[in-house]
Amino acid sequence: MDIEEKEVEHIVHVLKEIKQYLAENNAIKLKELSNHTIHSASTYQDAGSITLAVLVYTLSKLIEREDYKKIKDWREFIKKLNAIIDKSIAEIEKNNQKEYEEVFVNSRKLLESVSPNLKKYIEEVIRKASINKGSKIYEHGISLEQTSRLLGITQWELSEYIGQKNLPETKPSMTINIKKRAEMALEFFK
Amino acid sequence: MKALILDSGALINLSMNGLLYLIEEFKKITKIKFLITKQVKYEIVDRPINIPRFELGALRVSNLIDSKHLELPQSLNISDEEINSLTKKLKENANNSLESQGRSIQIVSDAEMSCLALSSILTEKGIENIIAIDERTTRILAEKPESLEELMSSKLHKKITTNKKNLAVFSKFRFIRSTELVYVAYKKGILKVNGAKALEAALYATKFKGAAVSWDEINILKKL
Which residues, numbered 1 to 40 in chain B, qualify as contacts with chain A under a Cβ-Cβ cut-off of 8 Å? Predict the structure, then answer.
C-alpha cells in the first residue's frame, strides 16, 4: 500500500528527529516520537511504521534506564543505526515501501545483536515495547486480535496490559445501556 | 437449546482471574452450550501453549475442552468449512467498512469474525445465542458503528468514513462481556467469593484483565 505524500513527509521528519534525540540521549523525546508513527501504523498497518514505533520506544527505555552504558559498542551501534535511518529516509522518499520496511527489519536485528550479554534483556525490552505500542494501536480502534497479530504478540499479554493501563474511557465505547445489557445477560441465563 | 459463544478475550479474562470454573458452574444450572470456534482455540490454546508465560492458562482452557464444558461447533454438526466461509465474508465486510482517504482500514481479524459467523449459523438453525467478547472494536462495529467512525476520526486526526452497506450485516448480533458473565454468576449464586465486596471485586477484576467496561458501568452494575 502506498503511503500518502503528506505521511511520507511526516515519517521523514520523525526519522530525522530520532537521529537528533539519539545523539542527545533524550529518552523523553524518543518516547514521544515512538507514538508519532502510531497513526500510520494503525491506518496502513505497514511493517515499517510498526517496527519503527517499537524500535524507538525500546531505545528510549534503554537510554532512560541507562542500560545503554552497559553496551560496549553502543556508539558503534548508533553510527550503524544512523546509517540505517538515512537509508530508510532515502527509500521512503522514493516511496519504495518494501525496501523501507526491510531496512527496519534489519535495524531490529541489529539491536537484538548489539550485546551478546544483554541479548535476552534487550529481547524482553522489545517485547514490552511491542505490547505498549499494541495498546496504542488498540486505542485507535483496531481490534485486539488484529493488533496482536500486527505486533507479533499474544492476546494474553495485550489483554493484561490494556487492563492494567486503564485506557481512557471514551464516549464512543459506550454503545448499549449497561442496564439493558445486564438484563439481556440475565434473561439469556434464565 | 441456547449457546454462548466465547471470544478469546473473554476466555483469557476468566482464565487470568481464576474464574474459568464459572463455565462448569453455569453448565450445572443451565442447559446452555459454551462454544468456541477453531480460530478462537488457536488464539487461546494452540498458540500460547508453546509460550511458557501462558502455558498454564492455555492448558486450563484446553482441559475445559477435553471435559466438554467448552465445545467446538462440530458438537452441533456445524463444520469448519461453513464457519470459515462465513468468517471470510464477514471479515471482508468489516475490513472494508471504514476508510481513510479512500483506503480501507483493516480493523478485525479471523477469531473475532468467526464468533459472529458461528452466531449467524446458530441463529439460522433456530438456536438462541449470544457472544461473550471483551474487546471493544467488534462490539462497537455491530452495536453502534458510527461510534467507531467517531473514535477513529478523533484518534487518527483524519476524516474516517463508513460504508454503511457493508455494516448492515453486523446489526443482528448480541454481545455481553466477561463483566456481565461475572454479574450473572453473582446473581445466580455461583461466584465462589464471599463478602460484601465480592461483586465489586469480581467486576473490577474483569476490567483489569482487559474487558472494555467503564467505571461508570461497573458502578451501575454494582447497584442493580
Answer: 2, 4, 8-9, 12-13, 16, 26, 30, 32
